[in-house]
Each structure stands twice: as structure tokens, then as C-alpha cells.
Amino acid sequence: GWRTPNIYLYQDFWCQPTEIQAIISMQNHYIAQDTDIIVSTIPKSGTTWLKALCFAIAKRQLYPHDRSNHPLLTSNPHELVPFLEYKLFANLGIPDMSSLARPLLMGTHVPIGALPDSVRNSGCKIVYMVRNPLDTYVSIWHFLSKLRPNSLGPPISFQEGFDMYCQGTIGFGPYWDHMLGYWHESLRNPRKVMFLRYEDMKENTGFHLRKLADFLGFPFSPEEEEEGVVEGIVKLCSFEKMKEVDVNKNGKGAIADFDNKNLFRKGVVGDWVNYFSPTMVERLTKIMDQKLAASGLSFKI
Length: 301
Ligand code: PPS
Prior knowledge:
It is built from 16 helices and six strands. It is of the alpha/beta class. The relative contact order is 0.16. The structure holds 3'-phosphate-adenosine-5'-phosphate sulfate (PPS). 3'-phosphate-adenosine-5'-phosphate sulfate is lined by residues 41, 43-49, 135, 139, 142, 237-239, 242, 255, 263-267, 271.
């Protein structure tokens, strides 16, 4: 049988005991403002990248992308766009969010149904990024392998972790419920939730960046287009660039107590071909097809 090391079902998603406390605090005390921007993902779906892009877009008046001291060149994106559950509401304290600069950008991994009512009832915006489930699993496995052994438990084999993944037992999963929640809301309320794919963003970053800027209410002006601001932001936030930033290479603690470099592994689409057997591909494809049937959401692999 498979194990669920240190992972528990809270409401209808899986998480670790340390996360539950912070999530409850967030649910009770976070009051969304109209200008808030929430970046949401399943872990390892492109969170770091999407946070960087949103920050670069929304703060470009204050921090033009071509400044040599741009915050993204001195801080990790997770410091600039802190997680609700790992930073703002961690450590049992209730943060004084009124003192934080607006627009306030935040991240979360919780499912949409676990966000407080004020998120639905305010004008705040949610940007969601999904990544194909095979690459996401490869990324999760590498990440957890670097972290373990630690409080999470002993290392887990690729196959054993995959079995859990297929059962839905991963952080903030089941994977399919997570993405379907945001997907349906993006269809119902496209001004509230923008649904992006890692693969699309990779393929044509500029195109999706413009759509993202429009959605967030910070569209690029003709002058900015002329000046090449879009291309500048694409470059600033690229995997190649971000990986070389000192704080991302040598720093730690941007999310939790691990080296920031673990957030930058390969940054490509399709690395799964190096890890999956045909049987595994078939198994996961079947599950996803079944879970996503009738939703209009599908993956190209
Ligand atoms: S986390 O812990 O959930 O915030 O991690 P997350 O950022 O979602 O996932 C990490 C994967 O994203 C890749 N990455 C990037 N891809 C493209 N562009 C940029 N700038 C970028 N930064 C990080 C990172 O390499 C991980 O994917 P893998 O496949 O493991 O390389």
C-alpha cells in the first residue's frame, strides 16, 4: 500500500499540519481589498514565474523593468509576492496588512473554495496557473527529494510518489479538484479569475503577458509597446535570468527554510519524457481525462 507521510485532509484538500494553522488564520483574518492580486497555483506549476510577472507588471510605475536595482534583481519573487499561508499568516500572528504597499500581491496554494468570502465579494483579482500534470509531478518529486529527509519524512521513490499523486494525495490536491475549481470560476467570472497555462506562457510569453496586464488593470500603453517594455519584462522574468540572480542562487528562506535555488531547476516543458514509462503516462492520462471530462479543460502532452 501507499503511505501518506505527514499529510492530512483539511476541508477537502491535503496539507501538512503546519500549513493548516496558517490556513485557518488566513481564512479568519484575511480581508481582501478591491486592489488585491492573488496568484494561485498547485505547487510546482509555475508560481515563482507568475509571481515575478505579476509583480513586474503591477509595479512598473514604481520600478521600471530596466532599472539595475529592480526588486526582482535583489529579491526572490516569493519575498515580493508573499504566500498567504507561508508568510503573511504563518507564525500564528495576524499581520497588519493595512501598512503594506498597494496594490498588494500575494500568493496561495489553497483551492478556490478555501479562500475567504471577501475574495469573492471584493473586486480583488485571482490569477491561476496550471501546468501539465506530468511535468508538475516531475518537478514536485525533484523538489521534495531535495528537501527530504526532514520533517516531511524519508525520501520517496518516483513510483511511490506517483501512486500518491494518482490518488490525489499531494499538497493542496487532489490536483484535478484544484484546477477545476479555478477553471469553473474563470468561466463564470472571467473578470475575477484568469486561468493561464505554463505551456502557453512558455510558448508565447509576450502575448500572454499582455493579456495578463489587461486583466490586472495595468495594460501596456502604445508608448510602452514602442519602448519594448513587454519584451523587457519577459526577459527580466525569464528562467535563465532569474536563475542567475544572486539571491536566487545563494539565498534561502524565500518561502520556507530551504535554499532558494531549489525553485529553479530546469524550467522547460516536456521534461517528463525523461522519467515516465508508457504505463505511467497512460495511467495518469486516463485519470485526467476522466476527471476533466465535460469540463472543457484538457492537457496536451
Ligand atoms: S513553488 O514552490 O510552488 O512556488 O514552485 P513553482 O515556482 O510553482 O515551480 C517551480 C518550477 O517552475 C520552474 N521555474 C520557472 N519556469 C519558467 N520561468 C521561470 N522564471 C521559472 N522559475 C522557476 C522551476 O524550474 C520549476 O520547474 P522544474 O520543471 O522543476 O524545472
